[in-house]
């Protein structure tokens, strides 16, 4: 099949069976580059006058400067500053001014970086996202943030077996009067006591 080059108007032959070569409109790669350069000369930026992409109205530098002017309340899509990304940026700037460590969780001391996808979050102690004072902000990891949001009330409890003190959330605390710090302590006490008969193996429970 014979086609005519868009740039130099010369005839060139292509293979009809090949789908890639069938879509060619230039006889060579050099003609394609020259055609695009000549096409870009007519496309100029409306601000600085430099060459731009035909699908855009501004060049890269001017589009970046133009985009920066539409941040915050200047943007027509402004929703009052309730988006998660905007709050994260504002709270991060507040914590930087307070000289807080932004690379470590304040509860479990886990290392990371503040981001939307993963790492560390910024937690509001009073659950009010509009209250962005320094004393109300807390840098936590994802697991600690989930724990603080779902179970904000924690109780200090003494294990019935090993007598160690540990923390327990509100829902687990109300289930039973006797508490254990782990499964091992629970199974140790089950082996010592027979709760159905309420007697100890070898004596009465006092």
How do the strands and helices of this protein lay out in sequence?
Elements: E1 2-4, E2 11-13, H1 19-22, H2 29-41, H3 60-68, H4 84-97, E3 120-124, E4 137-141, H5 142-150, E5 154-158, E6 165-169, H6 170-173, H7 183-192, E7 193-194, E8 199-200, E9 203-204
Antiparallel strand pairs: 1-2, 3-4, 5-6, 7-8, 8-9
In short:
The chain has 206 residues and is of the alpha+beta class.
Description:
A hairpin with a 6-residue loop joins strand 1 and strand 2. The protein has helices at 19-22, 29-41, 60-68, 84-97, 142-150, 170-173, 183-192, and strands at residues 2-4, 11-13, 120-124, 137-141, 154-158, 165-169, 193-194, 199-200, 203-204. It is α+β, with helices and mostly antiparallel strands. The strands form four sheets. The chain has a three-stranded antiparallel sheet. Strands 1-2 form a two-stranded antiparallel sheet. It starts with a strand and ends with a strand. The protein folds into three domains: 2-68, no CATH class; 84-150, no CATH class; 154-204, no CATH class.
> What proportion of the residues form beta strands (DSSP E)?
15-25%
Number of helices: 7
Order of helices and strands: EEHHHHEEHEEHHEEE
Helix-strand category: alpha+beta
Tell me about the biggest sheet?
Answer: 3 strands, antiparallel
Which shape, going by the Cα principal axes?
Answer: elongated
- Count the strands? 9
* Major β-sheet strand ordering: 7-8-9
Mean pLDDT: 76
Oligomer designation: single chain
Q: Which residue ranges are poorly predicted, with pLDDT under 50 across at least 5 consecutive positions?
A: 195-206
Rg calculated over all Cα atoms:
34 Å
> How many domain regions?
3
DSSP helix fraction: 25-40%
Distance between the termini: 102 Å
């Amino acid at each position: 099949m014979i086609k005519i080059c868009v740039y130099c108007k010369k005839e060139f032959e292509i293979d009809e069976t090949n789908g890639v070569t069938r879509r060619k409109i230039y006889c060579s790669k050099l003609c394609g580059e020259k055609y695009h350069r000549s096409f870009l000369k007519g496309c100029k930026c409306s601000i600085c006058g430099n060459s731009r992409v035909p699908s855009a109205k501004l060049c890269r530098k001017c589009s970046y400067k133009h985009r920066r002017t539409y941040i915050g309340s200047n943007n027509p899509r402004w929703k009052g500053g309730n988006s998660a990304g905007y709050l994260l940026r504002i709270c991060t700037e507040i914590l930087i001014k307070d000289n807080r460590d932004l690379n470590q969780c304040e509860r479990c001391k886990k290392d990371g970086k503040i981001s939307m996808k993963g790492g560390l979050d910024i937690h509001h102690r009073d659950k009010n996202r509009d209250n962005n004072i320094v004393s109300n902000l807390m840098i936590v990891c994802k697991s600690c943030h989930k724990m603080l949001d779902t179970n904000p009330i924690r109780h200090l409890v003494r294990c019935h077996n090993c007598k160690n003190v540990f923390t327990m959330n509100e829902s687990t605390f109300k289930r039973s009067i006797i508490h254990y710090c782990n499964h091992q302590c629970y199974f140790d006490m089950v082996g010592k006591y027979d709760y159905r008969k309420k007697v100890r193996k070898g004596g009465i429970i006092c």
